[in-house]
Amino acid sequence: MNSLLKFIQQYSNFLVFLILEVVAFMLLATNREYPKSVFLSTANRAVAKHYERVNEVDQYFSLREENARLYEENIRLQNELIAWRNHMEDSVEQTYLYAHLDYQLMPAKVVQVTTNRLHNTLTINKGLRDSVYRGMGVFNDEGVVGIVSTVGQRFSVVIPIIHTKSRISCMFAKNGYYGTIEWQGQDIRHVKVSDIPNHIAVNIGDTLVTSGLTPVFPANIPVAVVEKDTLMAGASYHQITASLLTDYKHLHYVYIIDNHAQVEQENLQREERN
Amino acid sequence: MAIALQVLLFNRLSFYGLCHPQVYILCLLMLPIALRRELEMLIGFALGLVMDILCNTLGVHIAACVLVTFLRQPLLTSMVQNAERLTTEITMATIPMAAYIRYAVILIVAHQAMVSLLSAFSFHHLGWTFLQIIISSALCVGLILGYNLLRSK
Question: In terms of CA atoms, which chain A residue is nearest residue B65?
Answer without folding.
Answer: A21
